[in-house]
Amino acid sequence: xxxxxxxxxxxxxxxxxxxxxxxxxxxxxxxxxxxxxxxxxxxxxxxxxxxxxxxxxxxxxxxxxxxxxxxxxxxxxxxxxxxxxxxxxxxxxxxxxxxxxxxxxxxxxxxxxxxxxxxxxxxxxxxxxxxxxxxxxxxxxxxxxxxxxxxxxxxxxxxxxxxxxxxxxxxxxxxxxxxxxxxxxxxxxxxxxxxxxxxxxxxxxxxxxxxxxxxxxxxxxxxxxxxxxxxxxxxxxxxxxxxxxxxxxxxxxxxxxxxxxxxxxxxxx
Length: 269
Known about the structure:
The protein is α/β, with parallel strands linked by helices. Helix content is 39%, strand content 23%. It has one domain: Acetylglutamate kinase-like (Carbamate kinase), CATH 3.40.1160.10. It is built from nine helices and 14 strands.
């Protein structure tokens, strides 16, 4: 396969206002997608875009306790509402990409994946692979997955992207890297004192120190926040795929990362 796969996760707190239900940060979203378009035009490759659910799906997920599965009489309705909320934001992202002539297509993990107690039990990856082979850009969101044991579970985009990246690796595809676009310049050394700077490099050797530096998630979030990104990225690093966490608030940072310039916190083995 001549081209490599680059995965980009647009954080829910970056493209939405997580303190207000269903509030999109349109200007930021459009700027980030423009940076992706610019890099894509200069160096075409296989792109996968993922995004968090931000102030969309996290709100009903919290109300209906969707992450816990079917725990009450309203759980099935809650699953459906949460899944629909995530899809609404996904379509907004896709429409903005189409305005930039980027061939974006929605791809929902819930249509190709079944879990058991939150862990992958069966999955169908062929549609994903064919989208890429045909130079389409799959756009994935955090999703509610049907679960054979507990009814349903939530997989964030921070989990879905590394999962499929590893599947690509198993099929001998070259995976370039995973870029997490957040509202911070990287992983803070002290969440209460941003002036202390960021961890420039995270490996298994300093993971305990990093976890101790984690703070509380702001706004609505049922998927674990920054530490989920880091722990999933450390697992991905074992397969030889590096991840980067950078700021979506800094114009040009995403473009720079896509074109090979160092930015933010790098996570590797």
